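Example S7 (structure tokens).
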């Protein structure tokens, strides 16, 4: 006797058990968010957000005990700037968003206190936050940068010296505020730095987030910008230069969660030397409520020598058809020979022509910082990198 099968093939649990809980997270917005490290499984390197990262070298930051790195910050004074230490259980903590990976949750749980920088001046102010006193001791940190309604400021995070650091930077942009946050990674050669930058932008607020990663052995800076108010604008720019054996990673998330929001993402990188590795993952989510959205993201990589690797993955999720525009682009390759030929025809040597192209390529991002002294310093650092290069 033949019995008809009425259930859908594959609908039953497999014999390996726990079938219902093994469905992978399909979208960026569905990832677990928690300040409790126990909610995150051990990192194996097979996870979608860790599979390009050398996790074997990060065990202490992912699961170990961490020192409190709050005292390592030096914050400059400016009009309308208030700096305070707040406990991690304060209502002021967590407004930018909760951790989305184990390293961030580990930092959250062991940071001890959060350093809050409140900006209230409507006249453009520049604040520098320097971190130079860290060591190879595994360390946690938590910083809150908050621009009150209508405030206008440039905040520069300068990271230099040694480090073995996992941290969260919360960025809160009030209604009509205009905030630029620049994160500079100029660490020493052996430094390790994992950072989650969680930002929320209110109605008509504007956030320009800029990352420049040049130094360090392993650097992973992941900005998440949530445009939660109508008319909010979020711009994420990045420049990086990876040398032999260096791992520079940036995972960018833009969440359009209100009508008529706008975003622009542009990261540019150069790579040289054996095993130089750059990772860029860009996720843009346009939610159902985000009608009238205007969004675009891109990543460009220049491979200057043999032996480098650049992973570039743009992703776009759109839940409404009523948008102004959305798109993404990604390129990885060598020099444009037409540009090189043009410069050579003007009497410039081939080697110098290639270096000029790299300078211009990265300076397009650096010049957005809006601080001449910092821009000149970064240009000098890139120039020093190029002087050691033998460009193919």
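Recovered sequence:
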């Amino acid at each position: 006797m033949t019995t008809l099968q009425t259930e859908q093939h594959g609908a039953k649990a497999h014999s390996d058990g726990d079938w219902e809980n093994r469905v992978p997270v399909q979208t960026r917005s569905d990832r677990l968010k928690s300040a409790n490290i126990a909610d995150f499984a051990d990192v194996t390197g097979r996870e979608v957000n860790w599979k390009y990262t050398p996790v074997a070298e990060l065990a202490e930051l992912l699961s170990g005990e961490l020192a409190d790195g709050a005292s390592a910050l030096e914050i400059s004074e400016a009009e309308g700037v208030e700096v305070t230490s707040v406990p991690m259980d304060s209502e002021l903590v967590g407004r930018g968003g909760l951790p989305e990976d184990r390293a961030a949750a580990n930092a959250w749980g062991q940071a001890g206190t959060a350093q809050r920088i409140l900006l209230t001046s409507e006249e453009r102010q520049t604040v520098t936050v320097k971190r130079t006193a860290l060591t190879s001791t595994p360390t946690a940190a938590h910083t809150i940068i908050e621009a009150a309604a209508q405030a206008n400021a440039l905040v520069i995070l300068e990271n230099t010296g040694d480090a073995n650091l996992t941290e969260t930077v919360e960025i809160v942009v009030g209604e009509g505020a205009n905030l630029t946050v620049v994160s500079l990674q100029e660490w020493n050669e052996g430094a390790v730095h994992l950072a989650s930058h969680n930002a929320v932008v209110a109605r008509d607020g504007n956030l320009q987030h800029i990352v420049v990663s040049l130094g360090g052995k392993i650097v992973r800076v992941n900005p998440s910008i949530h445009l939660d108010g109508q008319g909010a604008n979020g711009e994420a720019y990045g420049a990086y230069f990876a040398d032999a054996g260096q791992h520079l990673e940036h995972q960018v998330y833009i969440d359009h969660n209100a009508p008529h929001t706008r975003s622009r993402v542009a990261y540019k990188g150069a790579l040289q030397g054996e095993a130089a590795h750059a990772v860029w993952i860009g996720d843009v989510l346009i939610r159902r409520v985000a009608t009238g959205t205007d969004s675009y993201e891109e990543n460009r990589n220049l491979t200057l020598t043999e032996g480098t690797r650049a992973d570039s993955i743009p992703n776009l999720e759109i839940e409404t058809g009523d948008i102004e525009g959305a798109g993404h682009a990604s390129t990885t390759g060598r020099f444009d020979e037409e540009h090189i030929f043009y410069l050579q025809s003007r009497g410039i040597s081939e080697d110098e022509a290639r270096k000029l192209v790299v300078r211009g390529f990265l300076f397009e991002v650096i010049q957005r910082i809006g601080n001449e002294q910092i821009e000149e310093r970064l240009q000098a650092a890139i120039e020093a990198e190029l002087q050691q290069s033998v460009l193919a």
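Notes on this example. Helices lie at 59-63, 102-110, 337-344, 350-366, 372-387.
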